[in-house]
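[job 0412] stage=fold_complex status=start
inputs:
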Amino acid sequence: MLALPQTEIKTVRFGVVVFPGSNCDADSHDAVGTFTGAEARYLWHKDTQLDGLDCVILPGGFSYGDYLRPGAIARFSPIMKAVGRFAAAGGLVIGICNGFQILLEAGLLPGAMHRNQGLKFVCRLVNLRVENTSMPFTGKYEQGQIIRIPVAHMEGNYFINEAGLAELEDRNQIVVRYCNESGNAAKEANPNGSLGNIAGVCNREGNVFGLMPHPERVCDPLVGGADGRGVFKSIIISVLKNKS
Amino acid sequence: MELGTDRPAYELLGLKASEYDDICARLGREPNYVELAIFSLMWSEHCGYKHSRPLLGDLPTGGDCILQGPGENAGIVDIGEGLAIAMKIESHNHPSAIEPFQGAATGIGGIVRDIFAVGARPIACLDPLHFGSLAKARQRFLLEGVVAGVAAYGNCMGIPTIGGEIHFEDSYEDNCLVNVMCVGLVKHGDILKASARGEGNLIFLIGSTTGRDGIGGASVLASAEFDETAEEKRPTVQVGDPFTEKKLLEACLEMRDRRLLVGLQDLGAGGLSSSASEMASKGGSGIDLDISRVPLREEGMEPFEIMISESQERMLACTTTQNEVAVKNVCAKWDLDATVVGRVTGNGRLRVFNGEELIGDMPVAALVDEAPTYIVKPARPGHETDKLLPPDRYPQPPDLGAVLLKLMTSPNICSRRWVWQQYDHMVQTNNALWPGGEAAVLRLKGRRQGVALTTDGNGRRCYLDPRRGARAVVAEAARNLSCVGARPVAITNCLNFGNPEKGGIYHQFREAVAGMKEACQALGTPVTGGNVSFYNESFGKAIYPNPVIGMMGLVEDASRIRDHAFKDAGDAVLLLGAAEPAVDGSEYQLSVFGEVAGRIPDVDLESEKKMQLLLREAIIKELAKSAHDVSDGGLACCLAESAIAGGIGAVISLDEVSRPDILLFGEAPGLVVLTAAEADLERLLKLAAGVPLKQIGRTGGGRLAVTAGANSLIDLPLAQIKQAWETSLEAMVAGNGAPRAGDLANR
Amino acid sequence: MKAKVYITPKEGILDPQGVAIERALPALGFKGVTGVRVGKYIELDLPGGGDAAAEVDKMCKKLLANPIIEDFQFELVPE
Amino acid sequence: MKAKVYITPKEGILDPQGVAIERALPALGFKGVTGVRVGKYIELDLPGGGDAAAEVDKMCKKLLANPIIEDFQFELVPE
Ligand SMILES: Nc1ncnc2c1ncn2[C@@H]1O[C@H](COP(=O)(O)OP(=O)(O)O)[C@@H](O)[C@H]1O
Ligand SMILES: [Mg+2]
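[job 0412] stage=fold_complex status=done
writing structure:
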C-alpha cells in the first residue's frame, strides 16, 4: 500500500507495549502488521530492552485499571524507564489515548488530562485538523487536512497552563486539533472540552507524539475508514529516510 | 442469623419446610449451618431452576452446528474451519435496581466470565435494558447509572458493547431489567469444560480476595420479590473491578493456550459453593475444599460466609499437580492471587474443611441436580383476550404528521446514540456495522465471514399474549439479522418474569417458552443456553413477561452486508411481507392513546421464513440497497428512520384504506422496507416469486411525504423529523420531561 | 460557610482503586503500606442562613455520596 | 500510623466534576451553593519506622497527586 518496496518496509520495527490493562494493543499491532507490512512485536511492561526498535507504540486501554488517574501507575513500570531513554536517544514514541495519558504522567509530553467535560466516556468519530506535518508521525498528511478518526475515552480533556500553551503554539507542538467538517476548531466539535481543541501534541524534538484519537481503528475501510493509515505510513517513511 | 425471630433457619434462608425435609433425607441427618447455607443457595430458584427446569427441557437445543448446548457456562456454535462462537446472556436486574452502576458493571463482569470460562475470547457485549418512564427522576438515575456501569466495565475490559436495546414502560418502574449478552470466539480445540476430574488434581481459586459482598445474592436478591426490606438487603451490593477481570481473562486464556487446565469455572451466583459443586458434578467427581486457605478481604468471616460469598472477579480452575507451578507463574505474571483451595476426590461429595476440621459433607448430586422442581397450576390472566380491539375504539388523530413526530421522539423509538456513544463499541476493530441499525456485524480477522448479533425483547406484546409475543420476538431477532444479510443460526435467551409460584405468572412463562420453542423450530435457530430471572415483582406487581432473545447469525462475506439507510435518491422503496398492522400492543397505542390492550397479531412463521430467505438473497445478490424491519412505530417510523440514516427523503403513496393511521403506525410482525435501484427492480420482483413485495414509493428530496390516494397523510421536512428523533433521549435524561400519553389523541 | 465533605467506601465494600494503589506502591519503593482506601473529598461554599449541617447532610445523601456503598462525614468551617 | 491524604484541584483550574455538581444542586432544592471542588480522599496505613511524613509527602508527589493540576495535604494519625 505504500509506494515503497515491501522488503524495505519490513525492516521497520515497531514495538507495542502491553500493560496488564492495555486493550488496544492487538489493534495497534494489527494496524502495523496487517496494513503496512512493517514488523510489529509486543513488549511486556516489565521489559527493559528496546534495542533494534524504530518506533514504540503505547496503546490505548486502562494500563493499570487507571482508577487513580490514567497513566499514574503505568509511568512507573520498568518499560517506561526504557521508553524515556529510547526517546532521549531520538527513537520515535507514539502514545495513543491511554498511551498519551501515560506520556503526560511520565513527563515525556507537557500537560495533564482532566475528566471529559461531559463527565461521560465518549466513543465516536471526530474530525481532526492536522496542524503540523513537519514531523515523523504526520508527514503523509497535508497541512490543514481534515481527517476522520474515532475517540474513545473518559479523560481526554487536555490541560496546560498559559505559559505552556504559548510554548506549544510557538514551537508548533500542537499536532492535531478537533474541528468541524469545514475545519474550524469550533467548540461543538470538541468531544471532551480540551484546551484549544487540542487532540494531540508532540515534544520539542518532535519524536514523541501523544494523541487521544485512535488512528489504529481506522486503517481498514471495512470497519470505519482508512484515515488513520497516514500516521503509520508517515512513521515508516520517516524511519526509512533516516536509515538511508 | 437474624435475631428476634423464631422462624427456623431454613426459612430465613428461603427454603420451604418440605425442602428442608428433603435435604435431611438426602443427608441422612439434619444439615449443620454451613451445609444449610450451601443447600439454600444451590436450591434457590436462581441456581436450582426449580420452576423452570421442566419446561426448559422442551426447548430445541440440537443442530449440526451446536458444539455445546445448555448446561455449560456458555453455548458454543460451530462457524466452520475450526472456529466457534460462544454466547450467553444473563440478567442482573435486582442488583441494578438497588445500585445501578455497580449492578450493571458486575452484570457485565459475570457474563464475561462465563464466556472465557469456556475458553473463548470475548469479542462483544450487547445490553438489553428496560426501565420505567423517564418522566420520573429515579428512572433517569437508573438509566444513567446502568449505562455508565456497562460502559465502565466493558470499556475497561476492551470488549466492545455493540448492541442491545432500551425500552421504557411503567411496568419496569420498580424492577428494571438489565440483561447482558456476551459473545466470544474460540478454536474448537481450545474449548474448556467446567469439570473437575482426576483424583488428586488441584482446585485453584484465582483472582480477587473473598469478602462479605454479595452474601446471599442469589437466594436473597434473585429469588424473592422486592418489598420494604429491599433497603436492608443492601450489604449484598458488589463492586466491580474490571481491571482485575481483564487480568483474569488474559491469565485464563494464557493457561488455556499452555494447556494447563483440566477444567475452568467462573464464580458467579452461589460463589464457591456453586462453582465447586458444579465442577464436581460435571466431572463426575467430588471435591474437598479447605476454606481456611481462601484469601479473605475481611476479618472474622464465618465459614458459611466464605462458602457463599459472591465476591466478583474470581475463577476456579482444576489442574494437575504437575502444572501447579506453571499455573502460579502465569497468575503471578498477571499479578493475580492463585491459591490451591481444594482437591478432586472420587467420592462424589462436596466436603468442606476449615483447616483440619470437616465442617460440611454433602453429595454433589443432591446439590446440583436434585433441587426439587415445581409445576404450578397455570391461570390465564384476565387481561388476555382472543379478540382484536374494535377498529373504532380509538378515533384517528387529525394530524398524522404530528403523530409521527411524537412517535419519533418516544423514548422507545428515538435515537439511542446518547447510550452507545458511552460504550467503546469499536475496540478490537471488527465492526463492519456500527450501532444504531438492525444488528451488529463483526468481521472475523483473516476471514471473509462475519458474525451478526442482535437482541430483542418485547414485554408489552408478551403481556398481551405471551405465546404470540415470544414467537414474534424470536422472529424479529431473525428478521433483524436477515435485514443486514445474515443467516440466523442460534439463540441464547434471558427469561425475565414475575413470581412463578403464582398461576398467572406461571402461565405467562409456560406460554412464552412454548412460543419461543415454536419459533426456534420453525426458523431453525436452536437454543444454546440462557438464563431465567424470576421474581421480578415489587409490592406484588410483576413486570411484563419478557423473554429476551440474543441471536447470532452469519454472513459469508462481511463486506456484502446492508444497513437500513436510504442510499441514493431515485431508488424504489418497497414493502416486503404481507402482515396486517394492528393498533393492539403497538407503540402508537401506548404513546398516543395511553393504553396497552387487545390482541397482538401473530407471526406466520412459514411466510416469515420464506420472506427472510428472499431478503438475504436480495442482499447477497446486491439487489437490495437497504433493508429495515417494520417494528416499533410501524411503517411510518421505519421509513423515517431509513430516511434519517441516509439523509435522503422519500415520497410514498399507499392504497386508500379506512384507517390510514393504523396502516402507518400499527404494528405486525413480518414486514420489511427495502430500497432498490430502478435498474434492479425487475430482477428483484422476479426473485420474489410468491413472496409479497410491492413498490410503495421512491427515495429523494428533503421531505418525507406520504399520500393515500389523493390524501396527503404526512408531509414533513426530514430535518425536522431528524431533530426530534436525535435529541429526544438526551433531553429526557436531562429531565426535560418525557412526553405524556394522551395529549395528541385529544387534540 | 464552607463545608468539607469526606466520602469513603463503606466498610466491607471492595475498593478497587485502593487495591490497585496498594499493589503499585511496593514497586515504587514504598513497602508495607496497607489498608489503602480511596474516597472523595469535596469542598463547597454554602449560602448564609438556614441549618447548614442539615443541608449538607441532605446534599450528601441525595447527590454527593452514594449511601449504598459509601459513608460520608463532613465539617463546617466558618470563613 | 494512619495517613489521611486530601487531594484537591489546583486553585483556578477547571474542575469538571465540581462544575457538574454545582449545576445539579439547584434542581435538587439546594440554592446558592458555589465553589464546589471535587478532590480525592485517601487513607492508608503506614508500616512503623522511618520518617512517616517524608514518606507520605513523597508518595503524594510521585503517585497520588498530579502536581500540574492538583494540590495535596495530609495528616498523620497515630493509631
Ligand atoms: N432460558 C434458558 N434456556 C436455555 N438454557 C438455559 C436457560 N436458562 C438457563 N439455562 C442453562 O442452564 C445452565 C445454568 O445456568 P446458570 O445457572 O445461569 O449458569 P451460570 O451459573 O454459568 O451463570 C446454563 O447452561 C444455561 O445455559
Ligand atoms: Mg458460569
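[job 0412] summary: Chain C touches chain A through eight residues (CB under 8 Å).
[job 0412] exit 0
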